[in-house]
Amino acid sequence: MFCNVGQFGNLKPATAYTLTLAAISETFDNIMTIMERTFARLFVLIISMIYINLSIAQQKLLDVLPFKDGKVIYTEVVEVDSASSVQLYDRAKRWFVHTYNSSKDVIQLDDKEKGEIIGKGFFQDTWMVTFYAGQNVNVWQTIRVQVKDFKYRYEITDFIMRYYVSPSESTRGRDIDLPVEEWNKGRDANTQKFYLKIDDNVKALITSLKDAMNQAVDEEW
Hints:
Number of helices: 4
Number of strands: 8
Helix content: 40-55%
Distance between the termini: 91 Å
Radius of gyration: 32 Å
């Protein structure tokens, strides 16, 4: 608490000096309290930002594939103006037929009334096992498309890595059939490179689906 100079008129110099020091000490304590509170709030803010960044990072498997509840999954709700659920269903069905050689083998569920199609398909890419040796891998996935008036939702998940490892002098040939989340454990740098290829393939698939769902079909011919 600061004191008025006039208050010191009847005080001895030593007493006035003591009161002034007390006022300065109190002011200093107040400043330190404010600084401590400010630093405490800043510290909490920094910790919160770090936690948020870690949470976001944990949503990607090896910083590449979208990851939720222990599984890789690509999903999105997409709005399409002036398209009924029936029209969107027909577009989705055509996309399955045109994207895969045999829609009968791919489509697992086809429910026009509920507006839902589920299919299983795969794409193939080359995994570089070592710098010199490559392995063709079939990456299977489940694709689910649900439609409503003016919007649809896609989910691409249940990724399975399937390929055959040829026999060598020390090992027998064997089939590999593993979920992508469990595949090639312990070789993160190598796995991440192939994850990037998977991500590129899936994004191309999604772009193809979106283009088909936005494409109105002219039925008058």
